[in-house]
């Protein structure tokens, strides 16, 4: 729980409204914290004892299912870039920004493995299809992404980068397109 709280406070300037330990339903203590991310959004995180007291299969707290990912909104490009920098520094993201036209976002994984994205709505009303989306890699001190290697593909000099789900091809203008050959 400490790691979870620290991550959201440091990366998102969140404020922990409370952090309590109380008796759990099956014995032991339940620790829970309410973390205010601003804009009317808060995370209420629970650290449950084992056993939880809900082994009967009921849809009680702690047994309600799984959220695929969080989507958090920022107001402008400056804030998106600042959160992007903090996520990379925390080791929670490779810093790649995906441009969907109407929205630009950077994905992350928090210390407990929960996936999330930080998004900024643009002035565009059009959402780009998969093949139209652009990806901006996070540069290192030399202006290169550290996980990119230069390769020749079809006679053209390109760079490849491994993402969590697929291999991406980067042209020399840093426009990423998905590698459909895999």
TrEMBL record:
Tell me which CDD domains the record gives: VOC
Residue ranges of every copy of the VOC domain listed in the record: 1-121
Lineage top rank: taxon: Bacteria
What name does this protein carry? VOC domain-containing protein
């Amino acid at each position: 729980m400490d790691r979870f709280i620290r991550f959201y406070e440091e990366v998102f300037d969140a404020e922990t409204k409370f952090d309590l330990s109380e008796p759990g339903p099956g014995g032991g203590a339940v620790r829970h914290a309410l973390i205010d991310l601003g804009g009317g959004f808060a995370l209420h995180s629970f650290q449950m004892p084992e056993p939880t007291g809900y082994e009967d299969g009921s849809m009680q707290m702690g047994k309600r299912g799984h959220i695929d990912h969080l989507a958090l909104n920022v107001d402008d490009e400056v804030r998106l870039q600042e959160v992007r920098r903090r996520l990379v520094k925390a080791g929670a993201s490779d810093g790649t920004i995906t441009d969907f036209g109407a929205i630009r976002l950077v994905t992350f994984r928090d210390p407990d493995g929960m996936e999330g994205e930080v998004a900024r709505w643009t002035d565009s009303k059009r959402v780009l299809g998969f093949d139209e989306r652009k990806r901006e890699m996070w540069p290192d001190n030399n202006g290169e992404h550290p996980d990119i290697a230069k390769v020749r593909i079809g006679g053209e000099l390109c760079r490849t980068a491994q993402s969590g789900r697929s291999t991406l091809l980067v042209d020399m203008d840093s426009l990423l397109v998905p590698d459909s050959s895999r």
